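About this split. The held-out portion is used to measure sequence recovery: a designer receives only the structure tokens and must propose an amino acid at every position. Recovery is the fraction of positions where the proposal matches the reference. Here is one held-out target exactly as it appears in the evaluation file.
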């Protein structure tokens, strides 16, 4: 795998920053030229010279030849110690090619060679850039692509030499977690040890070549402060969401792919009270709730190659009801059986929160009441609200699109909606059933509800002004709020 520097000029530079990975300093430059249809994301090594890289290439060739001819014996029983054995062999070769170098430089070169030969090569560098959300390998004939939080899709200067290397990377990812990808099973969903989600396909299923798609796991969990600071949601909408969660009203987060549904679900979980038991159910662990909460995370498991050992989403939903939950969080609702159990849980007094693929509130109702989910419209009234997230594919901006209440007949009534032209949320309807429900179960008058919303808005503005965005700190402050000890 290579990472060429190109001939970009400073006048075309959009952004530059540095990454440090195992002692290796990597320079990231994002630029565009007249020949480029999209900006280029270029990496280069600052503390390893070109001459050193050429020598490391010879070292790598000798190392691989020893593996192939059996000089380095790989015993399957050694398990994770294989990497340790490889590292020792690489140290020997470095002393051969770089006699007299100091200990720190040796460690730096060992780290670089291990990354390039035992790991995923320069993809490892892309994985360490917190600014990237997605890393995509389409085939060996075009460069790796990345999705940058600020700049959207970018073409990198990282290339993979052949289709065999892409397949090797996919096989390595799968082997680490007990999955396989073969010509008979050319599709694979997996997760890196870091939590990053991986999808891989093999040719000829993907006709241009083997592919790898990595959706990065956010290093810092999203908080409600992040949503407000990033103008994804305003304090008025966040106050309504907080009020619904505090009063145990069930809610769905809807949106298209990449709209930030799970991040928003993670952020609004900041509002859960610490005195209740929360069970979360996900295909892949993505949520990180405040450590002040009584939280039990559950994750599904795919069957092994013999077809045994599967733990499905439905298994976990049914099991969660036996764990005395106060709140149930479901990563994504996809099937009828899961939805039926969840709506039954709402009817029996549990508060349920989850995500669903739908582009607006009306489409959410359509998705829920038609195949493959197909729940009866008559049960929708147990759901109180829908929060819709949207990503503008032209600008890359993520915004809350709608906040809607569910009426008695199962229809969605939009209360707050994004004015796209002005890029701001505006009230487009007066809440009715939400107010009735809150009045019925809490005894609050409309005036008291308005006063409570204003107090919540003041607290949220204070969190933003104090730059408190850590989910655990927010969780602690929320616990003080619920116990009447938070003074703003």
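Reference sequence for scoring:
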């Amino acid at each position: 795998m290579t990472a060429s520097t190109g001939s970009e000029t400073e006048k075309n530079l959009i952004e530059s920053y540095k990454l440090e990975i195992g002692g290796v300093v990597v320079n990231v430059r994002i630029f565009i030229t007249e020949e480029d249809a999209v900006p280029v994301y270029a990496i280069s090594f600052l503390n390893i010279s070109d001459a050193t890289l050429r020598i490391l290439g010879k070292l790598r060739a000798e190392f691989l030849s020893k593996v192939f001819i059996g000089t380095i014996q790989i015993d399957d029983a050694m398990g994770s110690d294989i990497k340790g054995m490889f590292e020792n062999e690489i140290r020997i070769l470095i002393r051969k090619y770089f006699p007299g170098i100091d200990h720190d430089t040796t460690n730096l070169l060992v780290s670089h060679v291990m990354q390039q030969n035992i790991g995923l090569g320069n993809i490892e560098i892309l994985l360490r850039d917190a600014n990237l959300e997605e890393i995509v390998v389409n085939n060996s004939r075009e460069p790796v692509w990345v999705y940058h939080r600020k700049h959207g899709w970018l073409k990198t200067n990282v290339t993979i030499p052949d289709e065999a290397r892409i397949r090797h990377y996919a096989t390595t990812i799968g082997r680490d977690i007990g999955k396989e990808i073969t010509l008979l099973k050319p599709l694979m969903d997996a997760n890196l040890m870091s939590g990053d989600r991986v999808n891989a396909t093999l040719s000829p299923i993907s006709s241009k070549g083997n592919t790898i798609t990595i959706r990065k796991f956010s290093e810092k969990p999203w908080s409600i402060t992040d949503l407000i600071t990033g103008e994804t949601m305003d304090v008025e909408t966040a106050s309504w969401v907080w009020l619904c969660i505090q009063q145990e009203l069930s809610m769905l987060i809807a949106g298209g792919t990449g709209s930030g549904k799970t991040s928003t679900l993670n952020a609004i979980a900041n509002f859960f009270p610490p005195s209740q038991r929360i069970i979360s159910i996900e295909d892949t662990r993505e949520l990180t709730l405040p450590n002040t909460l009584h939280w039990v995370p559950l994750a599904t498991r795919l069957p092994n190659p013999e077809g045994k050992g599967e733990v499905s989403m439905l298994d976990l939903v049914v099991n969660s009801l036996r764990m005395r939950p106060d709140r149930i969080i479901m990563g994504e609702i996809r099937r009828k059986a899961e939805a039926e159990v969840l709506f039954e849980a709402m009817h029996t007094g549990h508060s349920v929160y989850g995500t669903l693929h739908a582009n607006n509130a009306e489409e959410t109702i359509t998705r829920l009441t038609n195949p493959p989910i197909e729940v009866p419209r008559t049960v929708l009234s147990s759901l109180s609200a829908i929060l819709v997230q949207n990503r503008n594919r032209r600008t890359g901006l993520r915004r809350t699109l709608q906040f809607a209440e569910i009426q008695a007949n199962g229809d969605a009534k939009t209360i707050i909606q994004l004015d796209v032209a002005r890029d701001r949320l505006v009230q487009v309807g007066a809440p009715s059933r939400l107010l009735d429900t809150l009045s019925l179960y809490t005894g609050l008058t409309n005036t008291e509800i308005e006063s409570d919303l204003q107090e919540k808005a003041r607290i949220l503005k204070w969190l933003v002004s104090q730059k408190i965005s850590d989910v655990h700190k927010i969780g602690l402050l929320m616990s003080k709020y619920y116990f009447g000890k938070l003074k703003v």
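Annotator remark: The domain at 224-482 is CATH 3.40.50.300 (Rossmann fold).
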